[in-house]
Amino acid sequence: MQDLNDKINNGGATADGQLSADEWNQLPSEIQNIIEALGITLSGADLNQLGKGIAGYVANGAFYTDGGAANAYVLAAVGGKQLPPAYADGMLASFFPDNSNTGASTVNIGALGVKNIVNTSGGGKIASGIRVDLRYRLGTDDFEILNSPVASRENLLIGNFSINQRGVSGTVILGAGVYGHDRFKAGSGGCTYTFATSNNVTTITISAGTLIQEVEGLNIESADYVLSWQGTAQAQIDSGGFGDSGLVADTLVGGTSAIIEWGTGTISLPQLEKGVIPTDFVPRLIGDELALCERYFQALTTRVESATQQGTIIIFHTEMRATPTVSGGGAGFTSTGINADGWTGHQTTAASVALSFAAEL
Fold this sequence. Notes:
361 residues; elongated; mainly beta; four-stranded mixed sheet
């Protein structure tokens, strides 16, 4: 439509400032096109048709039909709706793919140009018949997936730095493979960190080395997983390369343990979940978190009797992953029986002692 404002204000080519019929028809034609693109039949009895047309664009203007192939998705507007003139930062596009992706994928919306869809290598990120929501990122000139066909809310990481049965404090200096907070141990080069808690969120600050959590294979299904956290540290899954939160993903094999490793920087609210798009962190009840940690480690202070007093029986709070290794106790401390459910034993002199039971991976 041409610019008619100046002409209406007597600034146009004709002295009278009047519009010709052709010029005037441009305005109602624009309005009619909006209405008819939504499949609405023009009617003089309905003076709300323009509003209905605008509402139709708002309702599903970002929805498209797929006419492409696996890994190369070609989207078209629904019905007679108009497409945007160009990709714009934050532009949304939703569609039901006709084909699942098998590797790195692209999308072309209304012939605006082919753009990469990030984090689609390896396949399994786009499933046939399951809606995909995309968002355009101007800075990287690509689309990101906002949902995932295999997303899950289950966090496979345990501890959340909220459980500290070993009682580490101050500047924590760990040798290779030594544990600090429950379920977190130093990498091969050791680890030095401090920590602080505010509003029930514990933040770890790693100044040297790396910090690891090994995820038990029994908790892993064969699927894509994405790692996220808050903070400046970078992380990797199974030595796959360090990256920022939400950009670290891998395809894990069911029954095979996975190594999650963070480098220097800050970490809080770590989460490993199914899918390729991270979701908001969901905390567990503190009792549930503790019970999960006690599968691998339990610290107890209890009275251990002497042999002449028939010894002591301990029933673990939680069944442990395997028969644990016990440490602590007083002089003459002796185990007479131990398995994943409990311990029996004695020491020379009956007394209250600190014991620890470890069944870490």
